[in-house]
Amino acid sequence: MSGHHDVHTGLHSEQGAYAGEHPGRAGNPVIKVLDLAWLEFEKPDLDRAETFAHAFGFATATRTVDELQLRGTDPGAPCVLIRRGDRSRFVGPAFRAADSADLLRLADATGARAVPLPESLGGLTVDLADPSRLRVRVVAETHELAALPTQQSHVFNFGHEVARVNATQRPLRAPARVRRLGHVVIQSTRYRETLDWYLRNLGLIVSDFLYYPGQRERGPVMSFIRCDRGSVPTDHHTLALTLGPSNRYVHSAYQVADLDALAAGGEYLREQGYHRSWGIGRHIQGSQIFDYWRDPDGFMVEHFSDGDMFDCTLEPGWAPMSASGLAQWGPPATKDFLGIKPGAESLRELRSIVDALREDNEFDLRRLRGLLKVANS
Fold first, then answer.
1. Residue 50 lies in domain
2. Quick one: which of 266, 248, 250 has its CA closest to 258?
3. pTM, whole model, 2 decimals?
4. 45 CB contacts (<8 Å, ≥6 apart)?
5. pLDDT < 50 stretches in the chain
6. pLDDT at residue number 82
7. I need a surface site. Which of 124, 219, 239, 303 has the fewest CB within 10 A?
8. Structurally, how many domains does the chain consist of?
């Protein structure tokens, strides 16, 4: 159609960096973590948290009066640790180091100590604070939970490639079984300083940078960051960092079997009265099929499937940030997902904007204009 403009043109970030832009990795990092181990939260009502967790697709690994450990079907450590607290809050992520020797190297470089974790987890941790004052654990030699029976992917007929004959497709409307923790997204008022901290200390590398339209010369404002395991492919992002007016958790993502598991699991969540934040669609950066939900405490959590896997050879892509550029297909990003839905959260963010503009950080008036432009795009 004459005059029609495709908002996705140019957003696929196979375009690379200009000379002098951020390289997306540290030259000689202290260690290279292997993966996210788990995320830690505090919540006042563990019964309510566990009910939602089962509907979302977690299994309970351990439950005591004051702690809930949730797991996926993959072997390894629990995905999520929730301790009883007076209020709901995100405590921080834990990353998995290759071994205790790496932990000791990290402790020596940062002036921290390697200390034992509780017996329910086993192993050791080095507890650090990133420049956003978020507690970051790096752990090694934790107990390994055995695999659980997993939800099998369906057999598909694609075009003339017929793999299913005399058999129907009947996905159950039941919780999508979480396989594993995929990534966490964190907002920071000190984005660049925080980014460099993770690259230098944990050996993470950037898959994609986003910048505010018209502000590329000021540098990126979001990065999708993966683990560097050499020739072994890893998730497009294990951690995503974004610049914003407050230091806070944005969302975390958990892998499920396939689109049918994700969609049928979403119908189950909807029938249980839970709130979909945004979905179903397919992302651009990372390519995941996604579906976002709010838990009863307001934390955003994502089911995903079919994400990109990169090895260490791929250089970062660069693309402008826009709300329409968050997905290749699917419904428009909601006000709830973007954090601008009228309510308590948007009021908190508004107060954070006022506070951030008064403080010495990276979130200044021009960055605020860029963020508002993105939210309205």
1. 35-143+176-375
2. 266
3. 0.94
4. 296
5. 1-5, 7-8, 10-12
6. 98
7. 219
8. 1
